[in-house]
Write a structure and sequence with these properties.
Layout: H1 4-35, H2 48-66, H3 68-75
């Protein structure tokens, strides 16, 4: 019978193998897409660059919204709060 730590280690190795195989599959697919690309002789609208810029800006704004607590922590100074302990803790046997 395996211990908790051995089972967790085996599970981590299996998930890493799965992640590696998925990543490798995505990489190979992207290489094939880029490698078999044909030249497109089409018209590129001048506003296309602005659409790309807007996409990048919206992704950055969404990321900032998700991690706003960390960003807020960078710009705010936090004083360490002092913790005061109660003088006497209640004993559960002294309820009466």
């Amino acid at each position: 019978m395996l211990g908790k730590f051995q089972a967790a280690s085996i599970q981590r190795k299996a998930s890493m193998k799965r992640l590696l195989s998925i990543s490798l599959g995505i990489f190979i697919t992207l290489c094939l897409i880029v490698g078999t690309e044909r030249r497109a002789w089409g018209y590129v609208d001048p506003g296309t660059g602005l659409v790309a810029l807007q996409t990048i800006a919206s992704v950055a704004a969404a990321y900032a919204y998700i991690v706003r607590r960390r960003i807020r922590g960078w710009f705010s100074r936090k004083e360490k709060a002092s913790v005061t302990l109660p003088a006497k803790t209640a004993d559960p046997t002294e309820l009466a």
